[in-house]
Amino acid sequence: MRHFNRVLFALLIIFCASFSLNAQNVDKPNLFLDCNRCFQSYIKENVALVNYVRDKNDAQIHLLITRARTGSDGIEYTLSFIGQNKTNALKDTLVYVSPASDTNENTRRGLANYIKIGLIPYLSNTSLIQYMEVNFAEINEEQNQQKDKWNNWVFEIGGFTSLSGEETRNSFEFNGEVSANRITKDWKIELQADARYERDQFELDDEQDFTSVETRREFESLAVKSLSPHWSAGLSSQISSSSFRNIKLQIGASPAVEYNIYPYAEYNEHEFNFLYKIAPTYFQYQDTTIFNETEEFLVEQSLEINYQVTQTWGAVQSSLEGSTFLHDLSKNRIDFRGQINFRIFRGLSLNLFGNYSLINDQIALPKEDATDEEALLRLRQQATGFEYRVGLGLSYTFGSIYNSIVNPRF
User: Domains plus CATH for the chain?
Assistant: First the structure.
């Protein structure tokens, strides 16, 4: 038994020495994957060139992935590779575009491949270089000279319907949408029409039925011309109706001009723009308004300020918009919206969002008060001087710095 223990002890020493040697030979750098909706589990399983850590302070590579919708309804991923500690001199950015026709499998495979390409400078000075090889797919002339028969136009038709109920209630809902978009470097053209119909029926205690119907129809168009790296100008128009807002018909057009302090090409990092619009609009109401109007023609102006930044420490998105009717400046509105995602220090993150509106422009409120049922079910817009919503979240994580393992069971 004593001889067996000696042999076992010797084998254990050899195994540990071998494991330590292998760990030294395979020198994987630590990577912090910073992204939302980027197939994190798939990337960790299929890009095994690095150790994934849960805190950016433990990483030699900070990979920040942001995404934006393209003109053809695809997704553009911007991959920012940021070196830290010993690799802080290395920094690179790659852009991967996934067409709208791609499946999730195509998208995540292409994204993982771009991540591998971006990691090459960080791996070339490690022992991992002996495990790397380069494959190049030849591009034939037909692929290189393809023409777009749709001339950058993208069309979409969609609809949704649902039916639900219980013993004293039933509900039917339908939503439909049609859109056509054409987006190039010089022009952005968007056309969209949608409709909504919702009917709810309730059986009350006195065995009477109450039925509510809410409808909304809307057509919007937008044409924007790029004037320079900082300036844009355009025209939007709208035709709509809404039973909730007491609008039987609304027709308007809005010329607008926008200035961005940062060049538009840097949208993935930061934006700080000012948008001014002036909108002459015709209103026709379902019921007489509190101002004794059944129809009127008004001109509204608005100024909107947007700021957003995405960096390794987190992201900030905020906007401030003020609008007023020119015939009566007291009929105005101010809207503020903001969201902050901030890493305070190792493991501790702050998430804060909120919006607040000062409302003095409810020109379409009906003269007759809403019934109790309409008020409780929010079938009609109610008079208010403000509205708000805020939210705050804190999260703290601690423990092992590594998170490369993916276990999908249960």
Answer: 2-131 (3.40.50)
